[in-house]
Design brief:
Layout (H helix, E strand, L loop, with lengths): L2 H8 L5 H12 L1 H6 L2 H8 L3 H10 L5 H12 L6 H7 L7 H15 L2 H13 L3 E5 L4 H12 L5 E3 L5 H5 L7 E5 L6 H12 L3 E6 L13 E3 L4 E2 L2 E2 L2 H18 L1 H17 L13
Parallel strand pairs: 1-2, 1-3, 3-4, 4-5
Antiparallel strand pairs: 6-7
């Protein structure tokens, strides 16, 4: 299990000091992989016993065992372009480099195994409820649009009507929640309520310390690059598109039949203009 998954399991039980340790480890895992207990303690501004307690809370016998696990987990990551860019100073990276790095990281995160796990409850659900914070709304809208064309009963839940819309949610349903720091109170509160009701949760968030990661094992962490003063929507939209594509595969003929019916309806209602641009306008 990765360090992200381990931290996610205990994220709501970390002390303030342990959260600082976790944040540093997630930001720069090389410090834990190759540094001493004292190195990590100095960076966090805490004591060596605090570092050891953090390791044991994660389920390891001590710092050495945690360090060995992190080294194994990082063995393939240290050679990736995104890791090299970070270590050379992401603070001076251009917006273009930040976006390229985030896209690369998203494809690494959403490998076949993770995509299948995220898509499975969406394909099987009676209803799919999609909730989102403000900065992640673009991904939620894309997911709603795509899923609605390949399966029935997909709902994009608006903040002002959350209670009314979710009042019919049952254990047969799945909720997909998009949210990144700063986390929206409505989406997190709704996710907790749905979890208590037994609704399957799929969380698209930004790290194991997210309040969403503690509610479900079925989550993924995206790199959210900044574009000027705002967070980019690129990786959340990518994730939505990849999820729709994987749900299509899992639904198989049911998705194909629905698309055929939708196309026939578009044709019969003249939804699209009968227009093709001329090759030459001379």
């Amino acid at each position: 299990m990765s360090i992200q998954d381990l931290i996610a399991q205990i994220g709501d039980r970390l002390t303030p000091t342990e959260r600082r340790i976790a944040e540093l480890v997630l930001r720069d895992p090389t410090l834990l992989a190759f540094g001493t207990v004292s190195d990590l303690a100095d960076q966090v501004g805490t004591s060596r016993p605090s570092i050891v307690r953090f390791a044991t809370k994660l389920g390891f016998e001590g710092y050495t065992e945690l360090q060995r696990s992190i080294r194994d987990d990082m063995s393939h990551q240290l050679t990736s372009p995104s890791q090299r860019i970070r270590q050379r100073g992401a603070e001076v990276a251009s917006i273009r480099n930040a976006i390229e790095e985030a896209i690369h990281a998203t494809f690494q995160t959403l490998d076949d195994k993770r995509l299948n796990a995220l898509a499975k409850p969406i394909a099987k659900a009676r209803n799919v409820w999609i909730l989102s914070g403000e900065t992640s709304m673009a991904g939620a809208v894309v997911l709603h649009s795509g899923l609605s064309m390949i399966r029935p009963d997909v709902h994009l839940v608006q903040e002002h009507s959350t209670g009314r819309e979710l009042s019919s949610a049952t254990k047969s349903d799945t909720a997909v929640i998009f949210d990144f720091a700063r986390y929206r109170r409505n989406s997190i509160t709704a996710a907790k309520v749905l979890s208590d009701l037994g609704v399957s949760l799929v969380a698209i968030t930004d790290g194991p310390l997210s309040p969403l990661a503690t509610l479900t094992k079925n989550w993924c962490a995206l790199d959210i690059p900044a574009v000027g003063p705002f967070d980019s929507s690129i990786t959340s939209v990518m994730t939505a598109e990849l999820l729709v594509s994987r749900v299509v595969i899992q639904l198989g003929k049911a998705a194909h039949d629905r698309i055929d019916r939708l196309e026939a309806l578009w044709q019969s209602t003249g939804t699209f203009l009968n227009y093709s641009p001329r090759d030459n306008r001379g």
